[in-house]
Each structure stands twice: as structure tokens, then as C-alpha cells.
Amino acid sequence: xxxxxxxxxxxxxxxxxxxxxxxxGEPVDYVWHTADDLSAYDCIIVPGGFSYGDYLRCGAxxxxxxxxxxxxxxxxxxxxxxxxxNGFQILTEAGLLPGAxxxxxxxxxxCHPADLRVENASTPFTREYEAGEVIDIPIAHGxxxxxxxxxxxxxxxxxxxxxxxxxGSNPNGSIDDIAGxxxxxxxxxxxxxxxxxxxxxxxxxxxxxxxxxxxxxAWREQNGAAAR
Amino acid sequence: MFKATVYVTIKENVLDPQGTAVQGALxxxxxxxxxxxxxxxxxxxxxxxxxRAEAESRLKAMCExxxxxxVVEDYRFELTEHVKEGV
Lengths: 228, 87
Prior knowledge:
Chain A: One of its GO terms (molecular function) is ATP binding. Chain A: Its EC number is 6.3.5.3, 3.5.1.2. Chain A is of the alpha/beta class. Chain A is built from 5 helices and 11 strands; from the N terminus they run E-H-E-E-H-E-H-E-E-E-E-H-E-E-E-H. In chain A, the strands form 2 sheets. Chain A has a 9-stranded mixed β-sheet with strand order 2-1-3-4-11-10-9-6-7, sandwiched between helices. Chain A has a two-stranded antiparallel ribbon with strand order 5-8. Chain B is built from 2 helices and 3 strands; from the N terminus they run E-H-E-H-E. Chain B has a 3-stranded antiparallel β-sheet, with helices on one face. The A-B interface holds A 56-57, 60-61, 64, 92-93, 98-100, 102-107, 145, 147-149, 173 and B 10, 14-15, 17-18, 21, 41, 66-67, 69, 71-72.
């Protein structure tokens, strides 16, 4: 299984994502934002950071780069797309996920471990977690306050698209304590917390590791490559 | 040539924490009559066209696609014509 990690000017979690995949033993490439072909990749990670300095709005400018045209196509083809933090913001700007991310209601940049409840353990990203399980994944954001209108929220609930909720106190004021959502098809996930920063005991938690092993096992099952 | 001024504001029903913080500061300073503060963005854009209708439709497209996120923001713009210097 081949992973691509997108890199925009200002991405700063690209290396962490690369390392998390490398630890899985799978091939992974950095993909510069000018690329217009993602056909070589089975899973594309849109990492955290401050693409284009967050000018105008988080993710607003990154959304119009060449590679995003290719990403939309890959998402439509059913490839796995994981947007973390700024990556989540970019996916909402691109319309691959509904809603928008607003400034934290506390006005503080929040950077600390956070308890998340796995609400949907049947996505390709969460299949190795248990539904209702509480996991420890760090957050680091100033604009992670997920917002959508009531109709969209009802739709997210009806389609089981809310993948993670904050289990402790809500660090940013997001609607319905949402920390991560997926698209209707389930192959595109956006989340504010950073699973790539929770893949080693040295980092304080290994709860993010199962996200990467989930993706791999989902892909192997889908492609009949269980023997690999 | 047209000069456009574009205003992007957070929708009325969406919380504006920056505005709330500034309101709090104004109250602390004794400006108790401040009932509400909303913070938005102001942009100036020069457009090289002589056609007002075209300028308006281009600006609308710019706002809808990039300048505002219509999920959470409203926008409006004003257009003023100005003659290029030396023409």
C-alpha cells in the first residue's frame, strides 16, 4: 500500500505523518502541492500546519492548488484521504467535508493531550478501535471549533459521519463536541487531533497508531492482499 | 478601472470570539455603551476592466470561491470607478 503526504508551503506536520507511515513499514512519499497526479497513491494524508500562513482563512488558499484537484478526484475514486488539523480545514474548504472550522471559543491556541471518544469504529480509519472507546490523542490548534448548520448536523448524525467526539471538556467549542467527521462514503476523514503524534510511548501515547494500522488492514481487505 | 472594497463578516448566527474579546476590553476601559462588536475583513481590489457589470460578476465569483467561506461568512462589496493616471 502506497501513501502520499501532501506538502504545502507552511505544512509542519508532514514529517510526523511520514514517520508514522514509515513505522508501519509501508512506502510513503512527500507530494509537493504543484503535483497534479495522485494516481500512484492508495491513501493520501493532508497534514497539519499553517498552509500559506493561514492567510485569509485556514486552508482557503491551499484548497486551490494543483494537487487539490487531484485529491478531489482520488476521493471520488474511493481512495482513502486523511486530513489532520490544517488538513481537516483544507478538506472543508475544498467541500470534501461539510462545515467549517472557526476560531476556538476560548481564543486560546490549545496544545495538550485530549480524550476522544471513538463514535464510529466502522470506517477504514477506525476499524481497529472499539466503538465508544476513549483514546488519548494530542491536539494543537487555534481554529478547531467545528461548525455546521443544524440541517448538516442532523445529516452527519443520520449517516453516522461523526467519527470522534471530545470525551473530556471540549477544547474549542465545536458543535456537538465534534473532533472528527467523515464523508458519506466513509473514505475521507477530517479531524483536529493529531494521531501521528501518538504513535510511540516516547510521545506519551500510542493510541494514534491504530489509525494507521486500520487504514492498512482496510486496504488489504479491500484489495485481497491479506497475505502480504 | 474599478476599485472594489470587499467586506467579509462572520454570519450573524455564528459566534465571533474575537469580537466578544474586544467588546470585553472596551467594557473594561469604561465604554459601557458598547453592546456588540463583530470583527471582519476588509480588502481592496483594483480591477482592470471598464465594464461595471462584468466587474460585479467577477467580484461575486471571487467572493463566493475564495474571499469568503459562505458556510460561516457573509460578504458585500462596493465598486468605484477611477480613471487610470496618464490615460
